[in-house]
From TrEMBL:
This is UDP-N-acetylglucosamine 2-epimerase (non-hydrolyzing). CDD domains: GTB_UDP-GlcNAc_2-Epimerase. The keyword Isomerase applies. It comes from Pusillibacter faecalis. Keywords: Isomerase, Plasmid. It holds the Pfam family Epimerase_2.
């Protein structure tokens, strides 16, 4: 029996963190040839993750250009995928989440009549402009996919209510699988500044902020809130790995650079970020992935957005929506800095996103689709 050629397509750092463990799980299956196609929508940040997981792509579109737009990303992915699919001839294409690479990869697979598996399916805010363009990318891929791998039962419920066709599985989130391979107590950072932070003497606040819907006034408010937290709390230090987006860097330079007890560093490789998260006190972020990763490490998260497509963590108590208003962000962060009971309630809440077996379930489901194994049981989170 010929091996199944399963091609995973991704292009950004967050996708890579969640897909690399799956690429490796598929490669370990006797009946599968695991292929990897990257678009390099984020070149430098993508490469750092590939290095952490010792993964060499079978195909690299290398599309990134300065000041790229959503249209250029999508069109270059779409046209570049033609040659990749024609050459590698996959039996199934797996895409992840909600990026422009995800949408273009799924659309190209559809054009070539190749079955599609959507990893991290079913997340919704039901506001097509927030997160932008991610919300619509998710919904469009849901219409194209044949297999839907949902992190939670709530995600599956979203798809069922929408009448989505195809086979739906609840798998947990592959990011929990990734954390099991990257976080270590004896870890030493290659970014030496991180080795010398006063983790035991001060409260280290890990910050990220980069989403397109926060560009402009929301980002200004967030930056001013971060500066106020640093200025008003001598027992706090902020660590901010600054996204490479010129828009983000301009805002950081204008509002945060020079603030006391603020460490502005370059983006971190996945293993560095995970280990920093494991040692920090609190996470403030507009990232989707960190809303899943930090709770798994027992770290409270304040989400710097108006809504989240990950309501499970809010319901579990590990995540709170802080919004994009300066006073609101400061008030919520101050409470967690100063109130031990409020902090403990969030830190000890149960993480709803998985048991580290998502990749195994997804690989089993792929084999089941091709009648080469049993259907996996859903994750009971």
């Amino acid at each position: 029996m010929d091996k199944l050629r399963i091609m995973s397509v991704f292009g950004t750092r967050p996708e890579a963190i969640k897909m690399c463990p799956l690429v490796r799980e598929l490669a370990a299956r006797e009946g599968v040839e695991s292929l990897c196609c990257v678009t390099a929508q984020h070149r430098q940040m993508l490469d750092s993750v590939l290095e952490v997981f010792s993964l060499k792509p079978d195909w690299d579109l290398d599309i990134m250009t300065p000041r790229q737009t959503l249209s250029t990303i999508t069109s270059k992915c779409l046209t570049g995928m033609d040659e990749a699919i024609d050459t590698l001839k996959p039996d199934m294409i797996l895409v992840h989440g909600d990026t422009s690479t995800t949408f273009a990869g799924a659309l190209s697979a559809f054009y070539h009549q190749v079955p599609i598996g959507h990893v991290e399916a079913g997340l919704r805010t039901y506001d097509k402009y927030s997160p932008f363009p991610e919300e619509m990318n998710r919904k469009l891929v849901s219409s194209l996919a044949d297999l839907h791998f949902c992190p939670t039962a709530n995600n599956r419920g979203n798809l069922l209510r929408e009448g989505v066709t195809g086979s739906i599985f609840v798998t947990g989130n592959t990011v929990i699988d990734a954390l099991k391979t990257t976080v270590r107590e004896d870890y030493r950072f290659s970014t030496d500044e991180l080795n010398h932070l006063p983790y035991s003497e001060k409260k280290i606040l890990l910050v990220t902020c980069h989403r397109r819907e926060n560009y402009g006034e929301p980002m200004r408010n967030i930056m001013l809130a971060l500066r106020q937290l640093a200025e008003e709390n001598r027992d706090v230090e902020l660590v901010y790995p600054v996204h490479l987006s010129p828009v983000v860097r301009e805002a950081v330079d204008r509002y945060l650079r020079g603030a006391p007890r603020v460490h502005l560093i370059d983006p971190l490789p996945a293993d560095e970020m995970h280990n920093l998260m494991a040692r920090c006190y609190l996470v403030l972020t507009d990232s989707g992935g960190l809303q899943e990763e930090a709770p798994a490490l027992g770290k409270p998260v304040l989400v710097l957005r108006r809504e989240t497509e990950r309501p499970e963590a809010v319901e579990a108590g590990t995540v709170k929506l802080a919004g994009v208003v300066q006073d609101d962000i400061v008030t919520m962060a101050q409470r967690l800095i100063q109130d031990r009971n409020a902090y403990a309630a969030m830190a000890h809440a149960v993480n709803p996103y998985g048991d580290g077996q998502a990749c195994r379930r997804i690989a089993d489901a792929v084999l089941w689709h091709f009648q080469r194994g049993e259907r996996p049981a859903d994750y009971q989170g």
